Amino acid sequence: MRTVEHELVGLAGPGGRWRPVAAGPFALLAVALALLPIRPVWLWAALIGVVAAVPWLLGAAPEARRRRPRPYWRLSADGLEKVGPGGLSMVSYERSRIDGLAITTGDGMLTVFHRFGRTAVGGMTAMGLEPLTVFVTARRLGIPMHVLDGEATDLLDPALDDALRIPTIDDDVPGGGPLPRDHAAEKRLLDQEAALLAAAHEPSPPKPDERPGRSRTRRQAGNEADREQRLDTPEPLPSRRRVVLLGVLTALLGTVMIVRIAVDGTGEFGARLAAGCWALAAIAGVLAARRRLLRAAQVRWTINAERLRVRARPGRRREVQDLRAGDVAAVVVGPGLRLDPVSGEPRRADLAALAFGHRLELVARLPAHGLDGFQLAHALDDHGYRVITPGARAPRRPQYGLEGLPEIFAQVPGGRLVVADGGLGWADAAGDVVLKMPEDRIGGIELLTIAGHAWVRLYDTDGDEFFAAPLSALRISRTDLRDSARRAGLPVNDAEYDAYLSAAFHSAVSTLTGSEPATASVPSQSAAGQDAAQDAGEQSGETAASPRPGPLDEHDLTFTVSPPPDPITAPGTLLDATRRSRLGTYGMSVLLCEAVALLGAVWLGPELGGFNATASWSVPAGLLIGLVGYWLYDRNRPQLRVSSAGVAVVTRRGKVEWDLARDRVGGVGIDEATERMPRLVVWSPSGRVLRQVTFPPDLDELRRACERYGLPWGPPDADRPAPPPPEL
């Protein structure tokens, strides 16, 4: 990549890759030709094959494979511009007309402030630019840079000009609590810029063999310590060879079946329809195999004290990025951008590396998606590279509102929640109860922890929740409310406190337990007295011939300490798949069986008496197979069990598919991944996905079960360990 001082070039995909041209239209044309009664038959089969191969022939043509670089964005001393093929400027914002740049945290848009207003240029990801690189380059060019909380549409609304005025120095200081989102984001960028400045101006440490006074033996030891290290992403599953083999077999199977249909004759419409289906299946299989191959590329890092070599596309040595260690001042490891292997457009990446030079210019963007960030950062640091990582992320806490708070709570100064006259009440500062909830209205009181704070939920006699609020807003401690309500005879459920007492009991008696349940015995008073009498007789000088009483029956007081409950035996809640998802799966299974039945009737109909005769029995058979098959699965469907001891998936017949203890669970909830559909997963405390729940239970019921039994809801915050539940 060409690097110029104080110039930033956006990420853009290279041109010249071999790809089929207009594969979709030609596939539809091949299917249409297969449905036509073309004579002779060899011409019909040849036309289908030629039309299916035309997109690949066009993609292999030299004119189509000529390197045509994609348009990219560039920020330099000339301003912000979009450069198209041939170096022509497609969009340009001159430096003299730019008053400032702003990045909005809500939608990630880059906005240009100029003399006549504001202009939203585009999304940072679509432009191939990272916030850190734009922030550092703009400040080096003398362009004011801002990070604003909100969206670009808010900045473009003239009605919000007064609300978006620049605050004074006194107004800029937040009144307690953490920094706002825009302040925190700008502070993180400033911290990274300061670290880059320090790395650029500090002298690099000498190599082990360049330090004075080092003997030959020590230099050899230093060279061995600085030997290269290679980091690779895991092998794709299935492997690239299997994907290629599957694509070739699909194409061959489609070709053979079309030739067989041509030999048998294409006089009936059912035979031509089967040929069209085989042609479509062959083309789709080849395209899917190519798409899978592009996404299965591995990232390989070779790190030593002299240089960095990174390759993201196997078999292409010319695309290996080779950087000398002397040209790299620091490497920023964190979230970034990468090129989509199929479309070639910039996409967000969980991990990427930005190499900066000693003039704070961007030397290279190094792909790192699929690698372990901890291992990559430490490998670079061990070989003498300066590594900079983003600051601690803001804790990802669930969003809860104060639902059902009566207005009188705010109208009574100094009010607090009390337990009085067998019910709950709201007392003022003098202790007088101004609002009372009788006992007959309270069906249950549930104490739980939400986002590290103690909450209370109140249920009526029908089991419906009608009140939820944090105890800090009610000015009562968790212990006081629990003890007072239990003394008053109110139904109180504090599962976390009970689980804490159970864990404390088992830890206290753990010294008495071994691999088997421990048994402790206490001898009775009669046995103790007989032992004392025997000792007294021995001291009185009795002879050995004197009769000695035999062993007496011991009436021992024994108790058995049972092992702590596991996620299967502990009391908990069993969550099933929703009725809507079950009905949808029923319908999909029936439709799939019906589609197979119709395709079988089309394919095998000419040999079994015609399409109508075959479909008359295959369609009802498909319906029956779909209903019975899913009923057999549904009668033993898995269910999610949530308890204070952990989570588990248990079938209706009692078979345990998997279980996780409480100490291994860091979070339960929806994984909003960018490269796959959202799914219900269980995280470890470090943020790694441990298990995936294949069936979707009711999310509200799951959240309440996690809150009830002390399991964290949502992904864990790996940077900030979760504190223990309050007042436990």
Describe the structure.
- The protein has 728 residues and is α+β, with helices and mostly antiparallel strands.
- The protein has 19 helices and 32 strands.
- It has a four-stranded antiparallel sheet. A four-stranded mixed sheet has the order 7-6-5-8.
- Strand 5 and strand 6 form a beta hairpin.
- Helix 2 runs antiparallel to helix 9.
- The longest helix has 27 residues.
- It is globular and about 100 Å long.
- About 13% of the residues have low confidence.
How much is the average pLDDT? 76
Summed up, the helix count is: 19
Structural class: alpha+beta
What gyration radius follows from the Cα positions, in whole Å?
36 Å
Order of strands, main sheet, comes to: 1-2-3-4
**Amino- and carboxy-terminal Cα gap:** 58 Å
Portion of residues in beta strands equals 15-25%
- Ranges where pLDDT stays below 50 over 5 or more residues in a row are 158-179, 211-222, 394-404, 513-557, 719-724
How would you characterize the largest beta sheet?
4 strands, antiparallel
Query: Any idea what the shape is?
Result: globular
Please specify the SSE layout and strand pairing.
Blueprint: E1 8-9, H1 23-35, H2 41-60, H3 62-65, E2 72-76, E3 79-83, E4 89-94, E5 98-104, E6 109-114, E7 117-123, H4 124-127, H5 131-140, E8 145-148, H6 152-155, H7 181-201, H8 216-225, E9 229-232, H9 240-264, H10 269-295, E10 300-303, E11 307-311, E12 321-324, E13 330-339, E14 346-356, E15 362-367, H11 373-382, E16 387-388, H12 407-411, E17 416-420, E18 423-427, E19 433-437, E20 444-450, E21 453-459, E22 465-470, H13 471-474, H14 478-487, E23 492-493, H15 495-508, E24 519-522, H16 525-539, E25 557-560, E26 572-575, H17 579-604, H18 611-634, E27 638-643, E28 646-651, E29 656-661, E30 667-671, E31 679-683, E32 689-693, H19 699-708
Parallel strand pairs: 5-8, 13-16, 20-23
Antiparallel strand pairs: 1-2, 2-3, 3-4, 5-6, 6-7, 9-10, 10-11, 11-12, 13-14, 14-15, 17-18, 18-19, 20-21, 21-22, 24-25, 26-27, 27-28, 28-29, 30-31, 31-32
Helix pairs in contact: 1-2, 1-10, 2-9, 9-10, 17-18
